[in-house]
Write a structure and sequence with these properties.
Elements lengths: L15 H6 L6 E11 L3 H12 L4 E4 L14 H8 L13 E3 L21 H10 L7 H15 L1 E3 L7 H13 L3 E3 L1 E3 L25 H7 L3 E3 L2 E9 L2 E10 L6 E14 L2 H11 L18 E7 L14 E3 L3 H4 L2 E4 L4 H7 L5 H9 L4 E7 L7 E5 L6 E5 L4 H20 L4 E3 L7 E2 L2 H9 L13 E3 L29 E3 L14 H17 L1 H4 L3
Length: 532
């Protein structure tokens, strides 16, 4: 692998300002490429690197702005308004679940918590046997997981990376007899500031900003930021390129219209943006599954208050995970205390004096993040015209999913009480807390399923996937075992949307492995896609 040193001012990017100032481009321009990649996150960056390394002319189009690492302030409020999709306000139709995504060069890898997890071998082997995807079997993908892990600097947290919040989780697990282990993260020589979600200013997080994107540009790939792809162009059953608009990220005004002619189009916008683009493009969908089967992996945070100061906001953001219930229930718990901005949506802070007292407790708090496996019943749909339309994300918990959230929340609260918590705040829209384990179940009984579980728990999702799933049958899946959209030659998908079923682990590592896999499939079929 060619080693590339990333300068402090980042990688070369053409943004809206550069387009506006280039008289040669004007209000409308065209570019030619062998491969155009839509999206620059975990999947898109890997594909761009692999294609550029193979000698292809690669163009990367990113709807979000470019924010080099040197510009990060570690203030989450600043980052949310700049590089989170909808300023961290991307929600479902009922407004009670936030779909957290990065909208920037590097995508969600820039704002992620660095958690790197592999699906269990049994899960991968089920994909191979039940979905007709033998190349995704555990033994087939193991070398690629190892390779990507090496690229990403994946390592098990060492002792100095496990902070006071994590130690409280460890204490609780030891007393409850629950299995736990240190989290694996893709970070090198972590600065231990605890502000991963605000972007890493020291380039220690191995996001796409400091790995695959600079590697891709070193091999000749070009990156356009502020460039929203409106549709994929197709002719006679083949993808021929894309159309896009370049927008000023501050005003939203269109600076220029862009057309890219390419032999191969790779869509890697993630589980929300990818189906929206394919729907706008009116790609064939015999299965009727495009934008369906969205798995949310609903996330809540249970917060405990302890007698002694913990300063849980110091040190590595995530330290340990509780893996006791992954195989039996699909639950996993990861230590980590929310930043104050997150508490606004994840916990009930009250107002006035009540709010002041709550925030005085912040240095005494420990957090346990709760992820529950859902059934993959969500949908994503584009409504309206190419430029004036909008997205519609539907997901509400079934009775079974709601019960899982209640149960997993109860387990997390018990872990914190076992570690000595004096109070536990529950992640509900009702203002509920318990001051001892005996009061906990009575408090949770007050959370009623109500109308389809709407406005019960304060939920986010960092790990949505599955809205353009992979499979061998064009009547039950969106992309084939090569990652190519059924019925459209040269149109590939390489992101979390192709994951064939709900899974209980963080998807980034899997997405990067699948992106490498799709890249290899494109290369193996090069004679049918490229002139030379």
């Amino acid at each position: 692998m060619r080693i590339v040193t990333v300068p402090r001012d980042g990688v070369p990017v053409t943004d809206a300002r550069a387009v506006a100032s280039d008289a040669a481009l004007g209000k409308q321009f065209s570019v030619q490429a062998d491969v155009v990649v839509v999206g620059s996150g975990a999947g898109g960056s890997v594909v761009a690197y692999e294609m550029a390394k193979a000698g292809r002319k690669v163009l990367i189009l990113e709807a979000g702005r470019y924010q080099p690492s040197a510009n990060f302030t570690e203030h989450l409020g600043d980052t949310m308004t700049q590089i989170y999709t909808d300023q961290a306000g991307q929600i479902n139709t009922t407004g009670d679940v936030i779909f957290v995504e990065g909208k920037c060069v590097g995508g969600s890898t820039v704002i992620g918590a660095c958690v790197m997890q592999k699906p269990a071998d049994a899960v991968l082997n089920r994909w191979a046997s039940e979905y007709g995807l033998p190349d995704l079997a555990a033994d087939k993908l193991a070398p690629t997981f190892d390779l990507v892990g090496e690229w990403q600097g994946v390592h098990v947290n060492e002792a100095h990376e496990i902070n006071s919040t994590a130690h409280k989780v460890i204490q609780g697990c030891e007393r409850m007899g629950y299995s736990w282990k240190p989290v694996q993260r893709n970070v090198k020589r972590c600065a231990l500031t605890g502000h991963c979600l605000a972007g890493c200013p020291s380039d220690r997080k191995m996001s796409a900003l400091v790995t695959h994107l600079p590697w891709a540009t070193a091999h000749g790939a070009r990156i356009f930021a502020d460039t929203h792809v409106t549709r994929v162009l197709m002719k006679s059953g083949r993808a021929t390129g894309v159309e896009a608009v370049v927008r000023d990220p501050d005003t939203g005004h269109i600076v220029s219209n862009m057309r890219v002619d390419a032999s191969v189009v790779v869509v890697a916008g993630g589980s929300i943006q990818t189906p929206l683009l394919l729907q706008r493009s009116q790609v064939p969908d015999k299965s009727g599954q495009l934008g369906r089967n969205l798995a949310v992996q609903p996330f809540t945070q249970v917060i405990g208050k302890f007698k002694e100061p913990l300063y849980g906001f110091r040190g590595a953001l995530v330290g340990v995970q509780v893996d006791e219930f992954v195989e039996s229930h699909g639950y996993q718990f990861i230590s980590g205390l929310a930043e104050p901005e997150q508490l606004m949506v994840q916990s009930e802070q009250g107002a006035g004096d009540e709010h002041i007292e709550y925030m005085k407790s912040y240095k005494h708090m420990a957090g346990l993040n709760v992820f529950a496996l859902d059934e993959g019943r969500g949908t994503v749909e584009w409504k309206g015209g190419l430029l004036d339309g909008g997205k519609e994300i539907k997901w509400s918990p079934s009775r079974s999913e709601f019960n899982n959230i209640v149960h997993s929340t109860s387990l997390a609260a018990r872990i914190l009480f076992s570690a000595g918590a004096e109070r536990v705040w529950l992640p509900t829209f009702q203002k509920l807390h318990a001051d001892n384990v005996f009061d906990l179940d009575e408090q949770l009984k007050q959370v009623d399923y109500g109308i389809n579980g709407i406005y019960t728990f304060r939920m986010n999702t960092f790990n949505s996937h599955g809205s353009a799933r992979m499979g061998v049958d064009e009547y039950t899946s969106v992309v084939n075992p090569n990652g190519e959209v059924h019925g459209v030659s040269g149109l590939y998908v390489a992101d979390a949307s192709i994951i064939p079923e709900p899974m209980a682990v963080a998807p980034q590592w899997t997405v990067q492995v699948l992106a490498k896999y799709v890249s290899d499939k494109i290369q193996s079929r090069a004679s049918s896609h490229f002139v030379s």
